[in-house]
User: Which sequence fits this backbone?
């Protein structure tokens, strides 16, 4: 069974930065794509960033230029660097992986805003 485990969430101030990690139980090269979604309380899940198997990235419009997705094959890990955070970006961030028609989700890590 594929496992995706996120970490790195926590308290951040507006304008601050954070780096999230997603460790996969299998080679990240075995996935067609990986990336991150977020969900704010009472809101729908939103795509934040994705990485295709070949390394191409895509981002949600609201985070372009501020967030960066990356990967480390040796560590089976996908990262999301969140920069210049806005207060409304406090949310649960979840890692995903897609392999063919199959999708896999991590349990999520919480990014919480602080004053």
Assistant:
């Amino acid at each position: 069974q594929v496992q995706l485990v996120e970490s790195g969430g926590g308290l951040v101030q507006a304008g601050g930065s954070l780096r999230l990690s997603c460790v996969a139980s299998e080679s990240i090269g075995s996935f067609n794509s990986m990336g991150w979604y977020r969900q704010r309380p009472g809101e729908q899940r939103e795509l934040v960033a994705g990485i295709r198997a070949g390394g191409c990235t895509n981002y949600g419009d609201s985070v372009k230029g501020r967030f960066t997705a990356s990967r480390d094959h040796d560590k089976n890990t996908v990262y999301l660097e969140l920069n210049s955070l806005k207060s409304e970006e406090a949310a649960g961030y979840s890692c995903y992986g897609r392999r063919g028609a199959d999708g896999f989700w991590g349990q999520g890590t919480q990014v919480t805003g602080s004053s």
Q: What stands out?
A: The mean pLDDT is 97. DSSP finds no helices and eleven strands in the chain. Residues 72 and 78 are 6 Å apart (CA to CA).
